[in-house]
């Protein structure tokens, strides 16, 4: 948990609509890790597995919230990484305005350093789609932060 908690936490924050949901997803992800019996091939396999599980847990929460009231939940204001008005908080707020797939693809490629092929496998998409998501996300962020 010490090695990957920051990475999993960031993915949960980016994918969930509420901080409490992100906390639940974070906890569920590591509980699934504890219950996993198969060994990992290496550290990178473990990290990718944790991120994929975190994404799936967040998706499941989103689906449950939608089924509960029939409306898609709105993304809450981001928890301040730094004080309000800081550049980091501005970037996080701008990231939260992006569609979920674009936000996740951009984060996994730009921040986590995964290739588009790896992200495509994680998100169950094609490489070309990941490139499109990242390109569109960057354009929207550039516009929002200008």
What is the 3D shape?
A: globular
Q: What's the helical proportion of residues?
A: over 70%
How many domain units?
2
Any idea of the CATH class of the largest domain?
Answer: Mainly Alpha
Described by strand count, sense and barrel closure, the largest sheet is: none
Q: Structural class of the helices, strands and pairings?
A: mainly alpha
**Distance linking N and C termini:** 37 Å
Tell me which CATH architecture of the largest domain applies here. Answer: Orthogonal Bundle
Residue windows where pLDDT falls under 50 for at least 5 positions: 70-84
Order of helices and strands: HHHHHHH
According to DSSP, the number of beta strands is 0
Strand content: under 5%
At CATH level 3, the topology of the largest domain is Rna Polymerase Sigma Factor, Chain: A
Describe this protein's structure.
The protein has 146 residues and is mainly alpha-helical. It folds into two domains: 1-76, Rna Polymerase Sigma Factor, Chain: A, CATH 1.10.1740; 81-146, Arc Repressor Mutant, subunit A (Orthogonal Bundle). It contains seven helices and no strands. Helix 1 runs parallel beside helix 3 and helix 4 (87-96) packs across helix 7 (127-145). It starts with a helix and ends with a helix.
């Amino acid at each position: 948990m010490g090695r990957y908690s920051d990475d999993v936490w960031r993915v949960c924050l980016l994918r969930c609509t509420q901080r409490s949901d992100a906390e639940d997803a974070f906890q569920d992800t590591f509980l699934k890790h504890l219950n996993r019996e198969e060994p990992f091939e290496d550290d990178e396999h473990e990290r990718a597995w944790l991120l994929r599980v975190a994404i799936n847990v967040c998706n499941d929460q989103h689906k449950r919230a939608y089924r509960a009231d029939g409306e898609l939940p709105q993304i809450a204001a981001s928890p301040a990484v730094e004080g309000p008005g800081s550049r980091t908080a501005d970037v996080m707020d701008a990231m939260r305005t992006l569609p979920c797939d674009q936000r996740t693809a951009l984060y996994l490629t730009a921040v986590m350093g995964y290739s588009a092929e790896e992200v495509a496998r994680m998100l169950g998409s094609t490489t070309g789609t990941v490139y499109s998501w990242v390109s569109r996300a960057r354009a929207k962020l550039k516009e929002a932060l200008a």
